[in-house]
Design goal:
3-stranded antiparallel β-sheet, Immunoglobulin-like, alpha+beta, elongated, 2 domains, 7 strands, 4-stranded antiparallel β-sheet
């Protein structure tokens, strides 16, 4: 009977250790797969564009499909908003630059770009939050 209890206790410890390791690995996996977004600059003209760099830190390709965005003034007023379809693949560890249209003047105040970037990673649709500051030029 004592040998059976020893085997049971060993299997129990192994199962608990496996679950903890799986939980830690899964937590780290999700933390690394969120794209990094950074505003590179604004091209001022009659129809301005904000250039946003998207970095894919995952070990697999990321297929971007859609961007929903809102440009807001420092006072919280919405300057522009929209949704744009994207068909863009970003290889593992690579970067891509997106042009986001901005039909508003941004020369005198800080503007916040907020939104959601939708893409497919590991054959699953995922949504990533976008939040960046655009300084006046």
């Amino acid at each position: 009977m004592e040998a059976a209890q020893y085997v049971y206790a060993s299997m129990y410890r192994l199962a608990v250790a496996s679950l903890i390791a799986l939980g830690l690995a899964t937590g780290c996996h999700h933390a690394r797969t969120s794209p990094e977004l950074r505003v590179l600059g604004v091209h001022p003209s009659s129809s301005s564009h904000v250039f946003v760099q998207v970095t894919n830190p995952a070990r697999r390709p990321l297929h971007l499909t859609k961007l929903e965005y809102v440009f807001a003034s420092s006072k919280g007023t919405t300057l522009a908003e929209g949704e744009m379809p994207i068909e863009r693949d970003i290889p593992a560890g690579a970067v891509a630059v997106l042009e986001v249209p901005l039909d508003a003047s941004t020369s005198t105040e800080t503007v916040t770009l907020r939104g959601k970037l939708t893409g497919e990673l590991d054959q699953m649709v995922r949504t990533f939050k976008l939040n960046a500051q655009i300084q006046p030029h």
